[in-house]
């Protein structure tokens, strides 16, 4: 148990569906992240939140919409996805974002998303 | 452009056969280099952070070292439970976002 919990673990959705991924961290961290892991590609950073404010958006299509209501919770809202969006979506948290130190990120188990 | 390259892509070892994984980086203003272990279907598990050239960290059969251009993860006398994908990542001076390499898949056979 890493202290970062993601639900659901698996999700199959049609291209016209709307769904949300949830992440919760119990580590008292101030920064939270969404990463995408596709087959044969390195982990890609999608979004960063520091103290509930979005500080990074790595050119992610608008069909992915993050939400951070408080420092413990992070959501990724999905709508009108494409089959190529199928991947493992990982949430992570770290103590701080801006200091440059204490950057060790702790990851959840991920949500395996399949778009059909 | 910042790049993190890991080699080899895959490594098959016999139990007890020591080896090294390489992570080379071209990053301006490196702040830290991180090693993670990832088991199939799971999220990456943090192993080490290295901040400066010459630094070394150890954990059980794993030892990580850092130079100005690359990092090595040495696996000494590996066991089958060391089988996993090992990921290298870096952060730069501004902000703690991780840039990952492609990983090395390690399989240790008994």
Assembly classification: heterodimer
Overall morphology of chain A? globular
**Compute the gyration radius of chain B: what is it?**
13 Å
Largest interface: A-B, 32 and 27 residues
Tell me the span between the first and last alpha carbons of chain A: 31 Å
Order of helices and strands of chain B: EEEEEEEEEEE
Query: What would you call the structural class of chain A?
Result: mainly beta
Q: Count every beta strand of chain A, where a strand is a DSSP E run of 2 or more residues.
A: 11
Structural class, from secondary structure content of chain B? mainly beta
Question: Can you put this structure into words, describing what you see?
Answer:
The complex is a heterodimer of chains A (116) and B (110). Chain A is built from no helices and 11 strands. By secondary structure, chain A is mostly beta strands. In chain A, strand 7 and strand 8 form a beta hairpin. The model of chain A has no long low-confidence stretch (mean pLDDT 91). Chain B is mostly beta strands and 110 residues long. Chain B has no helices and 11 strands. In chain B, a hairpin with a 6-residue loop joins strand 4 and strand 5.
Task: Give a quick set of tags describing it.
heterodimer, A: 116 residues, mainly beta, seven-stranded mixed beta sheet, 11 strands, B: 110 residues, six-stranded mixed beta sheet, five-stranded antiparallel beta sheet, 0% helix, 59% strand
